[in-house]
Write a structure and sequence with these properties.
The chain is an alpha/beta fold. The chain is about 40% helix and about 20% strand. Helix 13 links the parallel strand 14 and strand 15 (about 395-400). Helix 1 packs antiparallel against helix 2, helix 14 (about 405-410) packs across helix 15 (about 425-435) and helix 16 packs antiparallel against helix 17 (about 465-485). The longest helix is centred in the last third of the chain and has 21 residues, at about 540-560.
Length: about 700
């Protein structure tokens, strides 16, 4: 077991409190319980190496320019009192990495007597305001707010080094989350360790810097989340909201607890206070006022705590008692906590299953859940974990999780529901979930019924060995279905199949989930054909080979100018070889599909076997792009041949359908409009909300057979 200094600090505070009150036996039980909790909380793999931080080069002062806009979106307000070198360091950081957001920088000088008075007026673009007398931090901040022109106020301490991109990330919080009223940055020490990942306020009014001295990469501290407060060293708030509240409350003058009070006032108005880990700011904590609470300005921290506790007594009654160690378990105790387990973090630009999962996560968060994602076999892979963390998903992956057994033993009891994605993950985790999360509803997400897909592939290949393998998969999946509380399938056909194969199972349809993008280019503005699908999925490889070898040559004879764009990760040699044919372009993985959805005339889905619902068909229809598909590809999708889609299964018939649609503008417009409507009715986020509530939130599950 390893413990951080923050853990020791908490343990010390807890033991000191126990010594002051209660009987000897109660004190001993409290000590042991706390020690056991600390051991459980912090028994984990060592943190990974910390990301390097940016610091401006130190040099003698010469005049320079900082970002400035007459029509600023943000007004950065920096209160200062002496400490000119630190102020320059902060301003250099802002100048060397200017934000994309338009801004103005206002420095409010609270009566400095050092070089501040001489240097700052020489900085081009800086709005320098000198107060006539020293009034303290609160007065300086409120003066700056009155001078501001921006739609957002950003309060920034002068003893900070904002990291590149900090302001854009901080303000993006309000665009991504319109219900946000205040956003706070991730504060770091110069050595890269956390100083604060949002603050926790206990029921007695005392506060705790959550994550202090830990790694900022730790999944507990790396995702967007609601915080009790965020340190005023780097926070943003809409100007109108700040002024409506009346600014920082002057009863806390000259300083301390004004930021905590502001957060409570924002929340009292129905707005959220959010910690934004993508906004990274180094803070040299205590430069201006020190850290000794027994003397000087810092002594007001002790006085103001009692003022704060009295003012917010009613709200504080619902907060954690001081002796409780803050953790994800108790910080989210008022929310439904839902665990999603898959092999790796979803990659929504690479496969439709990941896109469905990503949109499901959004729906769960939208409905008030705290969502935890466990990538059982995955490490950090590019920006995919950050995409989950940005929407508020507590995201765990190697090396943070150690062993699955240890992780479930530490975290399992907090979950109300657990979803196991795909049969191989469910097979591994179902026993662990039942053991360590005994009260949780267990949901088995088939993604598609693997045994159905494998059986069809075996039939197409006429391979008895594959058929036997499909039967073994069937036995595994049916066993998992019987061992779960609810099973999710993506199509009515699969639900009907399970009505025969697993008649006692609770089965719900949660199909592909898509945002309706709307019409792209018009018929006349579009050209060519496109296929989208990753090649780790065997049906896609078979489909493209069949189309490229047997269908596309028939199309090319009649439409010699048309090109076929094949998009998908990891194409095997058999697919890349098709690129040698005239008119075929093998693109591999394409991160942004928009040009191919909005500018290509027809999507093709020539799958000859498979199961589930085909995301490639959904994706194209969501962009107003008509589809020519096989009957297998449109199975379970509520699509009508000639009305929503064109369907053909033989080479010549498929080629005829493509040529017909390519040349018929009236038919093209008809299919495009009906395809969009199909997505709205059956595959949009709106269409899935009721089933998501039923599966993850209700106390009972209702399906077509009644209450179960």
């Amino acid at each position: 077991m390893s413990m951080s200094l923050a853990d020791v600090r908490f343990l010390f505070d807890r033991v000191r409190g126990l010594i002051r009150r209660g009987s000897a036996s109660l004190r001993m039980r409290g000590w042991r319980a706390t020690w056991d909790r600390v051991q459980r909380q912090f028994r984990r793999a060592p943190p990974p190496a910390l990301e390097p931080l940016y610091f401006p080069a130190r040099r003698p002062f010469t005049p320079f320019a900082v970002p400035f806009s007459e029509s600023a979106t943000a007004s950065i307000i920096i209160p200062v009192y002496n400490q000119a070198d630190h102020t320059l360091n902060c301003l250099w950081a802002l100048a060397e990495h200017p934000p994309a957001t338009s801004c103005e920088i206002i420095v409010v000088d609270d009566g400095s007597s050092d070089e501040t008075v001489r240097w700052l007026p020489q900085i081009v673009g800086l709005r320098y305001h000198r107060r006539t007398e020293n009034g303290g931090f609160i007065a300086a901040c409120n003066d700056g707010a009155l001078l501001a022109h921006g739609r957002f106020l950003v309060f920034l301490n002068n003893d900070t080094v904002p990291q590149p991109g900090w302001l854009d990330a901080l303000l993006d919080t309000f665009h991504a989350h319109p219900e946000a009223g205040l956003a706070g940055a991730q504060l770091l020490y110069p050595d890269g360790r956390l100083q604060e990942a949002g603050g926790v306020v206990f029921s007695d009014g005392s506060a705790w810097n959550y994550g202090r001295l830990e790694s900022p990469e730790d999944p507990r501290f790396a995702s967007l989340r609601d915080a009790d407060y965020c340190s005023g060293a780097a926070i943003a708030i809409p100007t109108a909201l700040f002024r409506g509240i009346g600014g920082f409350d002057s009863r806390y003058a000259p300083a301390y607890y004004e930021d905590t009070d502001l957060a409570f006032a924002v929340r009292a108005l129905g707005k959220r206070v959010l910690y934004q880990p993508r906004a990274r700011v180094v803070h040299l904590e205590g430069i201006t006022s020190g850290t000794d609470t027994s003397s000087g300005i810092k002594a007001y921290q002790v006085r103001n705590r009692s003022i704060f506790a009295q003012k917010w007594q009613q709200a504080l009654a619902h907060h954690l008692p001081r002796q409780v160690l803050p953790s994800p378990t108790n910080l989210h105790a008022k929310q439904r906590q839902i665990l999603i387990i898959d092999a790796t973090v979803p990659q929504p630009d690479r496969d439709s299953g990941s896109l469905r999962l990503m949109n499901l996560l959004r729906l769960l968060i939208e409905q008030g859940a705290h969502v935890v994602f466990l990538a059982a076999h995955g490490y950090r892979d590019g920006d995919y974990p950050a995409a989950l963390q940005a929407i508020g998903v507590e995201t765990w992956f190697k090396p943070h999780i150690g062993s699955a057994t240890a992780w479930m033993g530490e975290h399992g009891a907090r979950f109300d529901a657990v979803m196991l994605s795909r049969h191989h993950i469910a097979n591994e985790f179902l026993p662990l979930v039942r053991r360590h999360a005994p009260s949780a509803r267990v949901i088995f997400d088939t993604v598609d019924l693997h045994y159905l897909r494998e059986s069809r592939g075996a039939d197409l290949a006429r391979n008895t060995a594959l058929k036997r393998s499909a039967e073994r998969t069937r036995e595994k999946e049916l066993q998992l279905i019987h061992g779960s509380d609810i099973t999710l399938v993506v199509s009515p056909l699969e639900k009907q199949l399970l009505a025969d194969d697993a008649p006692d199972a609770r089965v719900e349809i949660l199909s592909n989930l898509h945002e309706v993008a709307g019409n792209g280019g018009s018929y006349a503005q579009r050209k060519d054909l496109v296929f989208v699908g990753g090649f780790h999925h065997p049906p896609n490889t078979d489909a493209v080979r069949w189309f490229g070898e047997q269908v596309f040559p028939l199309i090319r004879r009649r439409l010699p100018e048309v090109r076929f764009h094949c998009i998908g990760s990891d194409p095997p040699e058999a697919i890349t070889a098709l690129g040698e044919q005239a008119g075929i372009q093998i693109h591999g993985h394409v991160p942004d599909l928009s040009p191919y959805m909005d500018d290509v005339r027809i999507a093709i889905a020539p799958l000859r076997f498979g199961a589930g619902v085909k995301g490639k068909v959904n994706l194209s229809m969501a962009h107003g792009q008509p589809v020519v598909a096989t009957s297998c590809a449109v199975e379970g999708m509520y699509l009508r041949d000639g009305v929503d889609v064109l369907v053909a299964d033989e080479s010549q018939a498929f080629a005829d359908a493509v040529v017909r649609l390519y040349q018929d503008e009236v038919l093209w417009n008809h299919l495009a409009a009906n395809g969009l409507e199909n997505i709205r009715q059956h595959f949009s986020l709106d269409a899935a909300r009721d089933v998501v509530k039923r599966v993850f939130f209700s106390s009972t599950v209702v399906n077509q057979s009644g209450v179960m």
